[in-house]
Design goal:
single chain; alpha+beta; UDP-n-acetylglucosamine1-carboxyvinyl-transferase, Chain; 2 domains; 4-stranded mixed beta sheet; binds uridine-diphosphate-N-acetylglucosamine
Length: 417
């Protein structure tokens, strides 16, 4: 739990190392349940979501060892989670469902409730597991899946990232072949599929809307370095677009960030792909329109950081959020800094203003928290971001250190401050 004190900052200059992708690491950690052998994951990011999932896997009986620069998971013997609270702590723990079912023949988790940004049901995960032959039953607020899995054709009603990952993992050990249609195409899915193939899985088509999986009898251990975090990289690119300056985002991959980079270019920010990562130059000067979409459309996770950019960019910028139903909570907080934002259902209209002024604001969710820190970089005086729930630590590793190292005036204060 932390608070952040942010002051109006000079143009950011220098290099920011981009960490390993949280959204790639979490499913990969769950994928480690698919083999009895050691799975070594290199450079795991120091995020509370990663440590929460590591604790859940340990509580299920897996050996989870932290080694220098790596986490090693051994699932030679494990069971279903015994304490439902362990699962409830984090939404992404729904990703243990597929591997538990595939390995143990039975999986039980508490049904995840809604979260701040929306209802987030898991009907597509369950529909797919049912198509793979699992019996699905509900009782006492939980869902139990059981049965031996056999290959099937699964059509997802929407290309859910989590459902695609869960079904992909379950199908690797099903008998026969599986086809997931209308699958999500996010880079984290491509990375998960490549990781599973390195364990002996037979998967093709990841990154397209049809994924084919040929079930195998067992998977073996592996060592894997997951991709760089495109959301962290995108957030830092937004920081540069707010203050101006020149940043090298070391390790960022432009091919994972095309939609953001096009939008920043439209806004007048210069981008250059270099062998070491992405160079971002200059401040946003023109307004833009954002419609969040599934990959390769504009990522919902970067909607809040881009709204922080829009607050001071001259002209009228428009945001349409199509993925989550309640993902504009940062708008009210940004307004406290003097931003001009009107929200109507899933649309937010931002009139850029030359002056923002520091104020006390609250991080309502992970990406909202990052957006408030970014807005604080261009608000006169001090902005105090209250992150009592520890949202920012879930997805950004030492954000204050990374921004400070390039000239951002950001301090992390002890929780009691
Ligand atoms: C993942 C990411 C999250 C990102 C999101 C969308 C991880 C750990 N999290 O979340 O950062 O914001 O993708 O890019 O990778 N839905 C259903 N039924 C389902 C599943 C999803 O209706 O069974 C709906 C959700 O309520 C939501 C939308 O589909 O409105 C997208 O959800 P999904 O793609 O599953 O996102 P997550 O995997 O939860």
């Amino acid at each position: 739990m932390a608070h952040y004190a942010v002051r109006e900052s000079p143009p950011l200059r220098g290099e920011i190392p981009i960490g390993t992708s949280k959204n790639a690491v979490l499913p990969i950690m769950c994928g480690a349940l698919l083999t009895r052998e050691d799975v070594r994951i290199e450079n795991p990011p120091e995020l509370t979501d990663v440590s929460t999932l590591a604790s859940l896997l340990a509580a299920c009986g897996c050996r989870v060892a932290r080694e220098k620069g790596a986490i090693v998971i051994t699932a030679s013997a494990f069971r279903n989670p015994q304490d439902e609270e362990d699962v409830r702590k984090m939404r992404a723990s729904v990703l243990v469902l597929g591997p538990l079912l595939a390995r143990l023949g039975e999986a039980r988790i508490p049904l995840p409730g809604g979260c701040a940004i929306g209802q987030r049901p898991i009907d597509q995960h369950l529909k797919g597991m049912s198509a793979l032959g699992a019996k699905v039953s509900f009782d006492h607020g939980g869902v139990t899946l059981s049965g031996r899995l056999r290959g099937a054709v699964i059509y997802l009603d929407m290309p859910s990232v989590g459902a695609t990952e869960n079904l992909l993992m379950a199908a690797t050990l099903a008998s026969g072949s599986t086809r997931i249609e209308n699958a999500a195409k996010e880079p984290e899915i491509v990375d998960l599929a490549a990781f599973l193939c390195s364990m002996g899985a037979r998967i093709s088509g990841a990154g397209t809307s049809t994924i084919l999986i040929e079930g195998v009898q067992k998977l073996h251990g592996t060592s894997w370095t997951p991709i760089a975090d495109r959301v962290e990289a995108g957030t830092m690119a937004c920081a540069c677009a707010i203050t101006g300056g020149e940043l090298l985002l070391r390790g960022a991959r432009s091919e994972h960030l095309r939609s953001l980079l096009f939008k920043l270019s439209e806004a007048g920010v210069h981008i250059q792909d270099t062998p070491g990562g992405l160079m971002v130059f200059g401040r946003a000067k023109h307004p833009f329109e954002i419609r969040t979409m599934v990959y390769p459309g504009f990522p919902t996770d970067l909607q809040a950081p881009m709204m922080a950019v829009a607050c001071k960019t001259p002209g009228t910028s428009v945001f349409l959020e199509t993925i989550f139903e309640n993902r504009f909570m940062h708008a009210a907080e940004l307004t406290r800094l003097g931003a001009h934002i009107r929200v109507e259902n899933r649309v937010a209209v931002v009139e850029g203003t030359p002056y923002l002024t520091g104020a006390a604001v609250r991080a309502t969710d992970l990406r909202a928290g990052a957006a408030l820190i970014l807005a604080g970089l261009c608000a006169e005086g001090e902005t105090l971001v209250d992150d009592e729930c520890g949202h920012i630590d879930r997805g950004y590793c030492h954000i204050e250190e990374k921004l400070s190292a390039v000239g951002g005036l950001v301090r992390r204060l002890p929780a009691s401050a």
